[in-house]
Amino acid sequence: PRTYATKWIEQVMPQFDLADEDIKALRAFLASRTDARVPVRYAYHGPGEERIIAGRRLVARYNCTGCHVIENTGGDIRRLYVDNPTLAPPILLGEGEKVQAGWLFNFVKAPQPIRPWLSLRMPTFGLADEEANTVVGYFEALDRVQVPFVHIEKAAFSPESVAAGKLLTGKDYFDCFSCHQRGAQKPQGPPEGWAPDLALAHQRLNPEWIIKWLHDPQKVMPGTKMPSFFPGGPPDVLGGDDEAQIRALRDYVVSLGLPDVTPSPQQAAGVTSAGPGASQ
Question: Which is more confident, 189 or 268?
């Protein structure tokens, strides 16, 4: 700036010695300070924005927010369940990260009971494949899911980890099945205290989401009745290692209902032992 100084005009603007990149950025910013609108073709579209817009249109068309809370809005029917909110349709927070893409596609095409004791049922809309894919892409884009597909094999689990997880779900520790259904086995107590069927976890839930959920259920789903067991797991299981116990719970829950398969030579040699998603 000082190059513009003359003996009649004093330049008081400091000399910042800006780099060329900084000068270009400053020039672009100053040029943007105008009332003129940016043409639509130059407008920025964030990653997944088109999928989110398409999903919102579909949600509006089928009035999904009449029952579900999606993007922190809707759930109108929940006012009828103020006394027993667990009997209301679920809040779809983080659904793209939570469930497997293949399961969600099949579910919206032909809904199956996840909580069979509920009197309210998800309707069958007869969605076309393209519409079902739009729903899946919408939730994945909301949660910025990069790799939606999961491959799970029972042989990929460490038997020791599965056994420890089974022990932790028992009555001497977390007593998980006092609330959760397991296949045809119903929990004890009134239905408003029951939780989803864990026998469906291997086909429904993303294994990495289960890890996140067990770390802090309230952070993932504020207001959930799911208790938080960590940090502070039992000291006599897996040496009191919280992370190992969380992985063990995940491994056992996901292994429920999985068919036994012959392990590969690498798995038999113990090369793969960290569970699903370890190589992703």
Answer: 189
